[in-house]
């Protein structure tokens, strides 16, 4: 990227942002309860449009201010890219099948190396990589990431993933400090082909395009090649070639870039965390950092699946979640019922071994998964297919618990988890919930929520409100507050 051009537009972009802000303030001051309804509505519409323009202008201003530094204008930067595959799910989306080291200097991105997990560490690594004591959630440590880099995505909180990756990568590949960490899944790789062009797959008659690359990486690669080793090498070579080409490609206009990459950022297919504090405001504003944080005094929910039998069968796993909260706005007390329906659509025959690694005593094509629910609340009861069961609970992040269940899904089966939770929100606040999505291999996953509230005037009866969340998109949502 030509940093001189970026710096040249910094002043006009800043001036435009200041002008939009001044117009917004001036128009806001014109608002009056004495305006006639048609005029009042027109003013509200204009204020809404100006507010959106103000947000866009501020983001553009921050971008031109920080982009040169992110691209190495103030000194070379060293980045790590984790390439995950949700065919074998982890909390962040997919297990880490490849990694790439990238340098940025004076606007130029250079691919240093592409590798596979065991190029960094394995159970045979001596001495083993070291983890900082007390720095990571217990559930992530259980995956032994110091031996298995494919498990570096074992928490939904991307700042934690990035910190762990920096910690271990600098030990595995000594050199300059790691300045930032990317996560990209097959959908993000497919998007790169919009910039680099189609890419033939060696040894096949397949040519990867933005339309078919995601399916090839999550499904087809496991049947096209004779061995998993061959598939891994071909995919590593493809990543190397495409990322190198991307580093030398002239990028399109910002609007086109946003149209292509924006949906990936929203669903968590593309995440980025910088260890430079000055970058954080911009990255958080555009939703890249993937931070899991409970809203102050509010609720948080995430339903995560983690493949528990190393296999690539999660392309056949489908989830639907329903969350009904009965909330007393006067006391903040609530009880919540979460229902998670899991379906394994895998056939019981004709699946490659790497896709359906058979578990002894279980039928071929069985999906063994750990279902984890992140919530501030305690579990009162848990049921699996209508029968009482137990859950394991661990601390995950400040104010957030992790409730775990191990579930086996034979091919073609559907299983239902039901949890009853209890807790209390802060008083004098509307009910707010942070839904943390998981970018799985299936875009049809979803979560439907219903909030029941007591009529605080009469003290009897209740009202309800509904909201539907996409299964893979983080969203902070506030329900309208009843009159107190």
Give me the secondary-structure topology.
Layout: H1 3-29, H2 37-70, E1 77-90, E2 93-105, E3 108-115, H3 138-141, H4 158-172, E4 180-184, H5 186-196, E5 199-200, E6 207-208, H6 213-224, H7 228-247, H8 254-266, E7 270-274, H9 280-285, E8 299-307, E9 317-327, E10 333-344, E11 367-375, E12 378-384, E13 387-388, E14 392-397, E15 400-409, E16 414-424, E17 432-435, E18 446-454, E19 462-470, E20 475-478
Parallel strand pairs: 1-4, 8-17, 9-18
Antiparallel strand pairs: 1-2, 2-3, 4-7, 5-6, 8-11, 9-10, 10-16, 11-15, 12-13, 12-16, 14-15, 17-20, 18-19
Helix pairs in contact: 1-2, 5-6, 5-7
InterPro entries: DUF4012
Q: Can you walk me through this structure?
A:
The protein is of the alpha+beta class and 484 residues long. The chain folds into 3 domains: 3-63; 77-285, 3-Layer(aba) Sandwich (Aminopeptidase); 299-478, Immunoglobulin-like (Sandwich), CATH 2.60.40. Helices cover 29% and strands 31% of the residues. It has 9 helices and 20 strands. It has helices at residues 3-29, 37-70, 138-141, 158-172, 186-196, 213-224, 228-247, 254-266, 280-285; strands spanning 77-90, 93-105, 108-115, 180-184, 199-200, 207-208, 270-274, 299-307, 317-327, 333-344, 367-375, 378-384, 387-388, 392-397, 400-409, 414-424, 432-435, 446-454, 462-470, 475-478. The strands form 4 sheets. A 7-stranded mixed β-sheet has the order 13-12-16-10-9-18-19, with no helix packed on it. Strands 14-15-11-8-17-20 form a 6-stranded mixed β-sheet, with no helix packed on it. Strand 12 (378-384) and strand 13 (387-388) form a beta hairpin. The mean pLDDT is 89. InterPro entries: DUF4012. Pfam families: DUF4012 (PF13196).
């Amino acid at each position: 990227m030509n940093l001189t051009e970026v710096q040249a537009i910094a002043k006009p972009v800043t001036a435009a942002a200041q002008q939009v802000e001044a117009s917004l303030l001036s128009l806001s001051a014109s608002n009056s309860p004495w305006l006639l309804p048609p005029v009042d509505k027109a003013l509200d519409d204009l204020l809404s449009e100006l507010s959106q323009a103000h947000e866009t202008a501020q983001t553009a201003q921050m971008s031109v201010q920080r982009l040169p530094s992110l691209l190495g204008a103030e000194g070379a930067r060293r980045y790590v890219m984790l390439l995950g595959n949700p065919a074998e799910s982890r909390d962040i989306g997919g297990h880490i099948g490849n990694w790439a080291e990238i340098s940025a200097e004076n606007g130029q991105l250079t691919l240093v190396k592409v590798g596979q997990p065991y190029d960094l560490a394995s159970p045979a690594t001596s001495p083993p990589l070291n983890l900082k004591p007390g720095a990571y959630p217990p559930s992530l440590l259980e995956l032994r990431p110091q031996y298995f880099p494919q498990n570096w995505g074992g928490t939904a909180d991307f700042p934690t993933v990035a910190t762990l990756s920096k910690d271990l990568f600098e030990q595995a590949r000594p050199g300059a400090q790691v300045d930032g960490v990317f996560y990209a899944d097959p959908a993000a790789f497919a998007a790169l082909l919009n910039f680099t062009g189609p890419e033939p797959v060696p040894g096949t008659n397949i040519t990867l395009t933005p339309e078919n690359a995601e399916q090839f990486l999550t499904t087809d690669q496991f049947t096209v090649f004779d061995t998993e080793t061959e598939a891994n090498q071909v995919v590593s070579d493809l990543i190397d070639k495409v990322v190198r080409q991307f580093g030398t490609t002239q990028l399109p206009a910002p609007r086109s870039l946003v149209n292509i990459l924006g949906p990936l950022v929203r669903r968590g297919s593309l995440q980025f965390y910088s260890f430079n504090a000055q970058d954080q405001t911009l990255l958080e504003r555009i939703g890249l950092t993937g931070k899991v944080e409970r809203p102050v005094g509010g609720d948080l929910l995430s339903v995560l699946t983690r493949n528990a039998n190393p296999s690539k069968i999660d392309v056949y796993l489908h989830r639907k979640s329903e969350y009904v909260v009965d909330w007393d706005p006067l006391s903040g007390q609530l009880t919540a019922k979460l229902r998670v329906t899991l379906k394994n659509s895998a056939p019981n025959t004709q699946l490659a071994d790497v896709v359906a690694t058979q578990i002894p005593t279980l039928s071929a094509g069985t999906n063994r998964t750990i279902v984890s629910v992140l919530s501030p609340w305690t579990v009162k009861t848990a049921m699996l297919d209508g029968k009482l069961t137990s859950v394991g609970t661990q601390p995950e992040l400040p104010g957030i618990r992790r409730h775990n269940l191990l579930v086996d899904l034979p091919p073609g089966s559907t299983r239902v988890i039901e949890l009853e939770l209890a807790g209390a929100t802060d008083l004098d606040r509307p009910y707010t919930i942070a839904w943390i999505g998981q970018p799985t291999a299936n875009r049809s996953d979803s979560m439907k929520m219903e909030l029941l509230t007591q009529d605080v005037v009469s003290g009897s009866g209740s009202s309800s409100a509904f909201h539907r969340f996409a299964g893979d998109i983080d969203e902070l949502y506030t329900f309208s507050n009843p009159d107190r």
